[in-house]
Amino acid sequence: MRQDMLLVVDMGSTRNTDVARAIRALGVYSEICNYDVTAEEIAKMPNVKGIVANGGPNDVVDGQKIGLSDEIKNCGLPVFTFDYEDNGTVHPMPKEDEAIQEDLRSFVFDTCKAQANWNMENFIADQIELIRKQVGDKKVLLALSGGVDSSVVAALLLKAIGSQLTCVHVNHGLLRKGEPEQVVRVFKDELSANLIYVDATERFLSKLEGVADPEQKRKIIGAEFIRVFEEEARKLDGIEFLAQGTIYPDIVESGTKTAKMVKSHHNVGGLPEDLQFELVEPLKMLFKDEVRACGVALGLPASMVYRQPFPGPGLGVRCLGAITRDRLEAVRESDAILREEFAKAGLEGKVWQYFTIVPDFKSVGVRDNARCFDWPVIIRAVNTIDAMTAQVPQLDWAVLQTITARILQEVKGVNRVCFDLSPKPTATIEWE
Predict the structure, then answer these.
(1) 151 labelled ligand-binding
(2) I need a labelling partner for 272 at 20 to 30 A (CA). Which of 25, 136, 142, 414 fits?
(3) Tens digit of pLDDT for each residue in 210-258?
């Protein structure tokens, strides 16, 4: 690794990502680790210059108040404390990210003597070196959804190992309208990647039939993805690695020892125990905005880099509860209308993410002068930098009225349109 690093040790804080991002904003790489990290583990990490012990309300685990071990205190690295008392100066956690950054500036540069060498050029060079070292002359199978994360992974792998990469695009029947066709056109025709297209719609929908619990849905989708890749890999020679677009928020939201899980991600903890591949995850320590910066540095087109985020389970977590084909179609069609009208209104690139949800309940309404009992469509639109927090933008009322009228007129089985005003936290961006 070419970058110096600071460790953010989770001592029960709810704001570890704020601290980690503040350090990275200073141009120094940072990682979050659990309170029980050992001095031996730290010694194996490259270029660690200092430790930030980050305290907070979750500082009791299994009935015991947690603390830094003596071996960490005596490991020779300087320690800075936020909201954590350990016989020394305690710095209160500021509310603003910029204030956190200023609190840390002297510690990072004057005390730790860290160099501001965290940038995408160094990151890409490091990852290319690590990928080549990990993979050698073997072949890699990439789960290519066509979203930002997997696209950037593809670009990195193509740069690192070229023709050793085979991309597999699985249509699980939970993609947005026109998306499978677009993925094939961009990656196979325009980028000349080795691309295998698999239509597994019936397979996935059969596995998901009657499954209402969102965690179970995610794990079924994740596990079935791996099975599809295993089957495709058996048709190829020398596939030993599976590449994924896992990013840092996926790992953080899937839970740590002091933080409760927000939700599991299909690529974190949802993989089968008997997985036959070794994983390649070059973006797993990047926040979403850093992934986009990496894509720009790799020369990917802006239309790809700034494409809307889309969850691995796709519309499966936007068709709430047990997935039915008619509600799934309502999600797909209403989402297409929303995206089309946002584009007409010039909101592409101004709103970070927007989509529709169809819950598993109905309400009474009136259609053609008769009583109807149909589903609502919920519109979700948010702005965020790193997907860890999000705010709801103020949208033009006329745009919302146009979208509402089109959905009610064009989408079968829908009689209401609602707009979600909830920020993250307390809500998450997705509903499941």
Answers:
(1) yes
(2) 136
(3) 999 999 999 999 899 888 878 888 898 888 998 999 999 888 766 555 5
Topology of domain 318-419, CATH: GMP Synthetase; Chain A, domain 3 (3.30.300)
Matching residue, tokens 């928020």: 249
Q: Consult the annotation and say whether 147 binds a ligand.
A: yes
149 among annotated binding-site residues: yes
Give how far Cα 157 sits from Cα of 96, 127, 419, Å: 37, 9, 40
pTM summary value? 0.74
- Could you tell me if residue 63 is left (phi over 0), alpha (psi between -120 and 50 degrees) or otherwise beta? left
Query: In the chain, what is the straight-line distance between the N-terminal and C-terminal CA atoms, in Å?
Result: 37
The residue assigned the tokens 């599991």 is 264
Q: What is the 3-state secondary structure (H, E, C) of 335-381?
A: HHHHHHHHHHCCCECCECEEEEEECCCCEEEEECCEEEEEEEEEEEE
Q: CA 360, CA 193: separation in Å to the nearest integer?
A: 39
163 annotated to a ligand binding site: no
Is residue 349 annotated as involved in ligand binding? Answer: no
CATH topology match: 120-305 vs 318-419: no
CB 416 within 8 A of CB 372: no
Topology classification of domain 5-111: Rossmann fold (3.40.50)
